[in-house]
Structures are given as structure tokens and as C-alpha cells.
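By convention, the C-alpha cell line describes the chain's fold. To illustrate:
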Amino acid sequence: MTVVHKSHLMAGLSGLALVTLAACGNGQSAPAESTSDPVEIAAASAPEPTVTPNADPIDTTHPNSIQPETTLSISAEGSVNREPDIAFLNAGVQTQGDTAQAAMTANSTAMNGVFDALTAADVDRRDMQTSNFSLQPQYDYSNRENGQPRLTGYQASNQLTVKVRDLDNLGETMDALVSAGGNTFSGLNFALEDDRAAKNAARDIAMKEAIARAELYAAASGYEVARVVTISESGGMRPQPMQMMAEARSMDRATPIASGEVGYSVTVNVVFELRKPAN
């Protein structure tokens, strides 16, 4: 029997060769000793990739590709103070009566006087809103009858939230409200009619502060700021009263009121991507 060796060089297999054995005799071919695909043999023989510790990141053009070890998170706050141009009064009328009807009637009479006084002070009806209304029985718990508290009458309460646009006459407006029958005050707050500019100014300050701090940290660690990855905002942006006195009116004219300033603040949370400076 004669054995013939045939070597076929496979292109693209990095020098690997496929050897086929064939037997010639009696007009029959010997079965092949291996049925594996040449590509599978080449893949199985390929060396494992080498991992180099602390190697530079692989360059990529993908817009969302960042290396976690080169990110920096910064939180920064921006605040601004502004002189208010509106005020919110929380005031109203509280009345007593032997019966529920009597308490309601007395309250209605006093509240009509309050509405008229506010209208005379140039407060628009659209700037008046009922914030709370209640009618409650009143009991004497010190003199019980048959173990039960004694009913002594009823109390009606009607509270308003009033937006005052004329701060120069705020003291006079409050005095007029009291003179007309208002006997409860539960709050006075100052604000801006349109606070969008103040809020945006606070945002601008916060973002500039975040960028400045990111550049400082990057330079100190041998990096530079590559780009902003994410930005989020936190903070209620509610006006906060500042302890600053404004000019008060004399006591003989009206109740003295100090409007001072209101402050708006916001916090931004920014994630930056850092990179090694180009040599």
C-alpha cells in the first residue's frame, strides 16, 4: 500500500496547515483521520490576550463611552438676594356665638367689612383667597355635667390669604383690615411676583461654581476637564426671608413693616469626565 501526504496551506490561518491522509489501493480512499473545521482549529490555537495593569484607556469615538475611574462628581450651590415686590398676608376673622347660627352671622358681618377694607386699599378680589374656614363647638371642661363637658357656644373662623402688590402701603392695608373686623394674623411673607430671573441667576452661579471646582480638582490630580456627563438640580428654590431691615414707617402713620430681601438658592449636581492632558 502506498501512502500519499498532501499539505494544503490555508490562507488567513497564520501559518497553520491542514494535513490530509489518503490511502490508494483497490480503488478506495481511506477515511479522513480528522473532521474538525480548520477555522475552529485556528481559533482554539490562538493565544490569550495579554492584560497590562494600569494601561491607558483604549481610544474610542463613542459619545457615551467614559472610564469610571476618570469621572468627578461635584455639588455646588448658588444663591441670590432680591428686594421683594409682593407680600402675602394670612389674616381673617374669628367670632363667638351662643349658637352656630349666631357665630356664623357675626363672622359673615365682620368678613364683609374686611373684604370692603381690602378693596378700598386697592387689593384686587383675585388676590384674595379663603385659605381656611371652620365652625367648632366650644366646651367647658372644668365644669362637667354628668361627667360630660358643658357646651358653651360656637366659634367660627374664616381665614384669608391676601396678595398685596403695593408694599409702600402694606402697613396701612393691615391697619384697615383690623379696623374692619379682622382679628387674626397668622403669617406675613415676602416674595417676587416673577422670580424666574432670580432662580436662573442662582442656577448660573451654582453651575459656574461647579465648573471652577472641577477644574481645580482636575489640575491638582494631573487631569483636565473633558466634558460634562450629567447635570441634576436639587433645592426647593423657595424664597427665604433675609434678616435685613428696610425703611420702616413712623408709628403714627401705620404699622411699621420691614420687607428686607428674599433669597433664592439652588444646588446642582454635576458629573464631569476627566482626561490626561495632551502632551
User: Anything to note?
Assistant: Residues 1-34, 39-44, 49-54, 241-252 have pLDDT under 50 and may be disordered.
